[in-house]
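[agent] plan:
  1. take the single chain provided in the ticket
  2. run structure prediction with default settings
  3. attach structure tokens to the ticket
  4. add a short note for the reviewer (M.T.)
[agent] executing step 1
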Amino acid sequence: MGFSLHDIKIGLDQDEFCFFFQPKISFMTGKTIGAEALVRWRRDGQWVSPNDFIPISEGTGFITLITEKLFGVLISDLDKISREYGKNVPLAFNISAHDLKSRRFYQQVQESLDRGEFDPRNIQFEMTESTVADMSVDSIQIMHDFKNMGITLALDDFGTGYSSLEVLSTFPFSLIKLDKSIVGKIFSSDKAANIIGSNIRMAQRIGMRIVAEGIETCEVYKKLLYGGCHQGQGFFMAKPMETDDFIGFLRKDKQFKGKPIGLVYQSQLDHIQWRKDLMEMFYQIRNSHYENIDYKKDFLFNSLMRDHTRCNLGQWYYGDGKIYQNHIQYKELEKPHENLHREGRLLLEGVLNNRNDDSLVMKISKINKISGEIIRILQDLENRVHHDDQED
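[agent] step 2 finished; step 3 output follows
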């Protein structure tokens, strides 16, 4: 059924628009860690499909008025959910290109935050790739301003646009959402499965969280869990639901089975990549491929050779990996990882000081030995977690 812009305006004025909430599940814990707020329109007792009002609203720019009105509803729902459930539950809210051009919407968010109406850690703004295409400098600045407020920015429907990698390198996103059209083909298309695996790896490499949409079966859930995905949503876990039903869902404290084995595997790849970068840097310096050695020295110690707690493996170990802190393999990992960073620093200091002697060869041999030990420990942990997962 077609609706005119006039119909939509009346519906907005009469408070006919509301949110349904689809839970987001953490692959770390199997529990709900938030939800996506999906706009719904109830007209004359019937629910109207978003396809019947979103396109015309976006095409006319009226979508921003909907966004402004519903942002207030979102904050009210967030408060209700937090009070009745007793815990904070982050909510994701879709915004459009028109919204990012609106100073009024920006000011609304800023003023609401200034009044203490919401904690920015509990709000996410989701944008599609098409939303940020050809975006103005002012709109990009608004995105940065939102991020500086503490609001998480998520790139929605990732993989459906023509410039995904450019978008990630240009805009301040910290979370990627794999599009359901790709996720749904994970078993029927090797290409789709490889795309998903590559995107998970890329997100891990650049320090971004990744969420999979459209999970409809247990098999897909397990595949993504073992692949290293961070979060997921879909009909397998829960359909979108009204506010009171969502609060009831939260109170059940449902936990989906499975251990985040994939993140243990990703940590192995992080370590291998770190060692590769180290050795590549060593040989480039030794062979004088760097013109400005002082600049490169600063770069080395600020990135590659940073504190062992801040490399990708270290961030996992002292972050998500803590769920394995009672495993002996986890406890075994810290010391060799610290040693690896120390030896790596000594190796680069040696070559930067123009040393080219047998001691550096011995240093490389020592690094290789420590690296092998780290891989063994991580693989043992991976096997242990697999075993525990089968017993649950």
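[agent] step 4 note for reviewer: The longest strand covers residues 32-43.
[agent] ticket updated
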